[in-house]
Amino acid sequence: MKDTWENFYKSRGRFYLLPHPNFDKVVAKLKTYRLNKVLDLGCGSGRHSIELAKQSFRVTGIDFAKEAIRLARQWAKSEKLKVTLITANIHKKISLKDNSFDAAIAVDAIHYSNSEALGKSLDEMKRVTRPGGLVFVTIPTTAGNPLVSHLIFTKDEILNMMKERFKILDSFTDKRKFLCVFGIVQKT
């Protein structure tokens, strides 16, 4: 999968330049809960990391494609924004401290491998987000026209995976038939 993404970004360059169409809801929730330090898991070439940094959030973006991180760094530099960008496997334990973020997002990012990898990514989101922190994920519920093959889940499957780890705040389906879910990390 890593090679697929390296080749994807090498051939296409900076891709997905605009944030998710409902990203304003993410920003509004972050502001409502007064959350500042955000992890962007599977950040790609930086569309959400850059948008959050423009709005004064402290952002760390992670992707396992070195080319995506290189492109995101270029973009942040051209916008004169401070964004921490790390190359790491988003389906394994990430070298970040427990409870080190106020929020973690994974937009169109964690559903490309297998169910086990998806679960590990959700576990990492929970581990690195402090209790009371916010998570936001988007996961497909129907086969669209993906640029890279990915898994498809039912709404119930996604909500059950999320409920095992988070208190669900809200969920809705976007125009691409991805289930978008907000959750809160609870104290354990």
Can you walk me through this structure?
This protein is of the alpha/beta class. It has one domain: Vaccinia Virus protein VP39 (Rossmann fold). 35% of the residues lie in helices and 26% in strands. The chain is built from six helices and seven strands, in the order ααβαβαββαβαββ. The protein has a seven-stranded mixed beta sheet with strand order 3-2-1-4-5-7-6, sandwiched between helices. It starts with a helix and ends with a strand.
Q: In what order do the strands lie side by side in the largest sheet?
A: 3-2-1-4-5-7-6
Q: Which structural class fits the helix and strand makeup? A: alpha/beta
Q: Secondary-structure element sequence?
A: HHEHEHEEHEHEE
Strand share of the residues? 25-35%
The coarse overall form would be: globular
CATH homologous superfamily annotation: Vaccinia Virus protein VP39
Counted up, domains total 1
Helix content: 25-40%
Overall number of strands? 7
- Provide the low-confidence segments as ranges: none
How far apart the termini lie comes to 33 Å
Average pLDDT taken over every residue: 89
Under the CATH scheme, which class? Answer: Alpha Beta
Q: What is the CATH third-level topology name? A: Rossmann fold
Q: Biggest sheet: strands, sense, closure?
A: 7 strands, mixed
CATH architectural category: 3-Layer(aba) Sandwich
Put simply, the count of helices is: 6
